[in-house]
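Entry for the shared binder. Reason: the reviewer on the internal report wants the predicted structure included alongside the sequence.
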Amino acid sequence: MTNGKPARPPVVELQAWQDALAQQHLREKEHTRARDALNAARRRLPMVRLEREYQFRGAGGTLSLRDLFEGRRQLIVYHFMFGPDWEAGCDGCSWVVDAMTHPAHLHARDTTLALVSRAPLEKLERYRERMGWTHPPWYSSLGSEFNFDMGVSTGERDAPGTDRGERHGVSVFLQDADGIYRSYFTGRRGVEYLGSLWTYLDLTPYGRQETWEDSPPGWPQSQAYVWNRRHDEYDQ
């Protein structure tokens, strides 16, 4: 602060600003290429098969993990911090949901996005109404080992008052006729850049599924910008 006013960047002539901006764009392009390389490496990660059966409660009743895919090949689960005895969901997780992309765009790439928390479904529904969220679907894993196996709940399972050990994060799953596999997980600051369609697809084994991507042979792909629609046009 200077004279009670916040500091600010220097003011320069137009040419100096354009030169500085051009240098910044070069740095940003390098960052984009580095992220493309990271995404390509993520698509080549091995997976682990899930052997345990899990149950969830949702608006449609009791569901399995396979049900959460809604018939699609890929599932992204945001582990929303909301312990069984909490009265409200995590404020940081709420920011993440506020910024989530419209599900129709993910569905067009055979991918489902869902929220999972340990709080009872009734609490989740009340909080959803308070926040005005209509998507994505939100499921309770209360009574299941899911959160513990995914490493996002660390409190004792049965002892009262010990469910404060909740963590946020994102898990990515792939399914086929032989099983369900966990392909990726990130937490902490790894969720900060999430929000757009692209950032969610970049977490998945198949990525954006466009021909410019560096993906292994056999990955599903199409030309860029030929599959995307307005969210109300995909079924037309």
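Summary line for the report: The first helix runs from residue 14 to 42.
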